[in-house]
Each structure stands twice: as structure tokens, then as C-alpha cells.
Amino acid sequence: MDLHRSRTPSALPVVKTAGNKSSTQTIKQTMTRVGLGLFRKAVFSLLATVAVGPAFAAPPPDTVKQAGALNTGGTSFYDGFGRTEEGFSALEYIAYNISDRINTYNGQENPAFNHPNIDSFVTLHQVAYTTDWQPFGGFFAFSAAIPTINFSTQFNTPGAVLHPNSYGFGDSTWGPIWQSRPVLNDAGRAVFSYRFQLQIISPTGSFASSRNLNQSAEYWIINPYVAFTVLPLENWEISARIHYTDNMQSDKFSSPPKVPGLIYEYGQAGNNAFANFASSYKIGYGIALGVNGFYLKQLNDDTTNGIKVPNSKQQYLFIGPGARYELDKSNFANFNIYLPEIHENISSGPRFNLMLVHRF
Asked: What H or E segment, with its residue span, contains residue 16?
């Protein structure tokens, strides 16, 4: 049972002015004067993704950014199957992510940066416990996970430069699980299995407002999902996990611009729908080869002080090859490579993910 786990500088939103909250014209004139300078100097928050690393974002500098602690690509083969007997499972994820391009809202390379290189190394530690309670014919379980993240960056001059936070913990992910029993065909072969989880992502990670790259998003997220696996043939499986995120407000901003007379009170990242998908075929000796990917669509714009931020929606699609090795029923590993196909308002580059599972 595995983890139940960029935006570009764009037009700046209208925000409140100190001492004059109703002067919209004055606000617009002030924003116009500073807009060009902020566009070239804009910095963004890069938040590490639990399991697979960051979906690096480059929003306007005065917004609350999308959380990185989203399970985009961290799960893959046989995802709908989980432990169906009481006991603990330990899961370790190791991910290395390379970003050598920062993209605008329309997927074009952002000219404000000069050959950037943003790497992240993520290790995720997760424990899941399946209880002996079997409501609605399935199994009740609980999982909790916390990552550690290290950033490595290089920015050439002239061009914008982003400053990372030091090595630290990311946001924790936890919540209750309901795991189905495998559905069998007339011959007694498992052909379908599925799982629900209500995940909560808590802002427990490292965050420094003076840094552009942080481990924590500094806001709460409600992230339910459903995962399932279908086996059309005995050795062929198709899996998917469909998520929805409801992002809470936050008054924490990563390196907001210092604009006289402007007050950044609170922000909220837009909600998302995203899915991981994978398919593999067993070739023997415990080895399965396949393909894996993930797709995210942001459903509504980010907001600052309750006002929409234009061109702040994300959309991205990553696809690549993968493999699975099963030593026995208690020990297996998934390896995934993801390559960017669509990359709107994120930074992009290859991603590499290794998941190790041991069931006690």
C-alpha cells in the first residue's frame, strides 16, 4: 500500500493599499508603475513534492503558491491493491528531480531566467497500519508520511536568481484508508481492486519567508483520492489514482516583493484535479515492464487578498517508462521515469522515482 501521496511571473493582482482600501484607480496606477520591474525580478516558490519531488512553480511573487506535497507520480503499478491483513507496512521513496527550464502560463520558456538548473533530492518515509476492522466488506487502515528534501540550484547571470531553503523536512501527509477486498472472476483470479483515502496535508515542514525555495507550503490541504487496478489478463495490469485538492488560505508568502504602500494579507492557491496512471506486463522472474505518467489540471485561479491572479493556473503532463521487481509478496520495488509533455506554469525536466515496500 503506497503513499495515499510553475507558473511564471504574470499580471499582478489588485491588492489593498495601506490606509485607503477603496481607491482602485490609485492601486492600478501603482501596480502599473511597478509591474514591469516586478516581472523581471519575480521570484517563485519551489515546493518539494512528497514522493516524486517538486512540480516547480513560478507564480507572481505576491501569491500563495501551489503546494509541492502532492503525489504526482509517486505511485504507479498495482496501485489499487493494498494490504488485506492486520499489520504494519513500511514504505521508502527516493526521488531525484531535474529542472532545467522554467515555463510561462502558455508553456513557453520564461526569458527572465538564464539557463536555470534546479535539482531536488527527496526521501519519503511512510508507515501504514491495516487494522482488523472490516467495515462495508473492506479493510480499515491508516497511513502517515513525512519527506526530507534538499535543493541544489544554479542560475546564470544576467537573469533572475532563486534562493533555496536549507535541507529540511517537508509537509506531512496522513489520513484514514478503506481498502477493498480483491474482486475475483469465476476462475478465482483477482481482476479488480480499489481503495479510498481521505488525506490531510499538514504544514509541518521547513519554511522561511526570505527564501524562494521552501519545503513547506505553509497551508493545510484536504486531498481525497480513489485508486484502482484492473487486470484484463493475468500478467497485465492497468492502474490509476484520481485526486482532488482543496487548498486552504495562508498568510505566509515566500519572498513577496517590497512595494511601498502595498499590503499582502492572505492568499489561496487554486484547487486541482490530478491523476497518476500506469500499466505493466509481467515478463517473468518477478519483473514487470510498463509505462507510467501523471496529469494535473488546476481548476481555478490563485487569489491574493481574495482577488484572482490572472494566468495563474497550472497544467502539466509527464509520461515515461517504468519497471517493477517483486522479490516476494512482502517485498517489492517500483522504478519510474517521467518526461514532460505539457508544462504550463511549472518548471520542467526529467524525474526519477524509486519506491521500496516491505510488509511486516
From this structure: none
Q: Identify residue 104 by its one-letter amino acid code.
A: T
Whether residue 10 is contained in a domain is answered as no
CATH number of the structural domain spanning residue 90: 2.40.160.40
| Tens digit of each residue's pLDDT (9 = 90 or more) over 315-357 | 999 999 999 999 998 899 999 999 999 999 888 889 999 999 9
Question: In this structure, is residue 95 part of a structural domain?
Answer: yes
Give residues with Cβ within 8 angstroms of 345, minimum separation 6. Answer: 6, 7, 8, 57, 58, 59, 103, 104, 105, 311, 312, 313, 314, 315
Chain centroid, CA 239 distance in Å: 19
94 grid coordinates: 527516493
Q: Which residues contact 21 (CB under 8 A, 6 or more apart)?
A: none
Pairing of strands 213-214, 46-47: parallel
Give the CA count within 13 Å in the CB-facing half-sphere of 121.
Answer: 5
Residue 148's H or E segment, with its range, is strand 139-154
The string of pLDDT tens digits covering residues 182-234 is 999 999 999 999 999 999 999 999 998 888 888 898 999 999 999 999 999 99
Is 91 inside a domain boundary?
yes
Q: How many structural domains compose the chain? A: 1
Radius of gyration of the chain (CA): 21
Residue 164 to residue 155: CA distance in whole angstroms: 12
Give 20's pLDDT tier (boundaries 50, 70, 90).
Answer: very low
Cell 492568499: give the residue.
267
Residue 37 in this model has a pLDDT that exceeds 70: no
User: Distance (Å, rounded) from C-alpha 243 to C-alpha 272?
Assistant: 8
> Whole-angstrom Cα distance, residue 145 to residue 2?
10
Q: Tell me the pTM.
A: 0.81
Residue 129 belongs to a domain: yes
Range of the domain at 125: 24-359
Which residue blocks in 306-357 are alpha helix, DSSP H? none
| Residue 294 dihedral angles phi and psi, to the nearest 5° | -155, 150
Q: What's CA 197's distance to the chain center, in Å?
A: 16
What pLDDT band is residue 266 in, cutting at 50, 70 and 90? confident
For residue 41, report the phi and psi dihedrals to the nearest 5 degrees: -100, 0
